[in-house]
Inverse folding.
């Protein structure tokens, strides 16, 4: 059975990977270009879904160390992205991307540093769950 720290590391790595991926999708474009680019918008929303789901799996003890992060809202956002997708507004996604994710990234990187061993590399194509 995996240790709590290895389980936490998995979800922390997933969150960090998808924060970085969302930022790569956006690059240096501004909000006006982002809101009109369905491909980028959909890509970022998918990253936010995964971040939301991974955040649900983090231990309460870890979340308790970082009360400045809106963990409950982050978890709930995944339900909105999946089930109330017609209400997902580009402006809210942009705010999450530019305001909330940088704060979350700092917390995730700190937790990973405390676990030691550095960030896990991104999965290779052979390890990806879908072809």
């Amino acid at each position: 059975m995996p240790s709590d720290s290895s389980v936490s590391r998995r979800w922390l790595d997933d969150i960090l990977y998808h924060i970085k991926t969302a930022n790569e999708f956006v690059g240096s474009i501004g909000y006006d270009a982002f809101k009109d680019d369905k491909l980028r918008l959909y890509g970022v929303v998918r990253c936010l879904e995964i971040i939301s789901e991974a955040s649900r799996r983090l231990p309460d003890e870890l979340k308790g160390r970082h009360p400045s992060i809106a963990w409950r809202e982050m978890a709930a956002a995944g339900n909105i992205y999946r089930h109330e997708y017609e209400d997902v507004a580009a402006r809210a996604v942009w705010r999450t991307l530019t305001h909330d994710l940088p704060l979350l990234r700092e917390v995730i990187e700190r937790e990973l540093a405390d676990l030691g061993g550095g960030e896990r590399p991104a999965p290779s194509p052979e390890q990806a769950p879908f072809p």
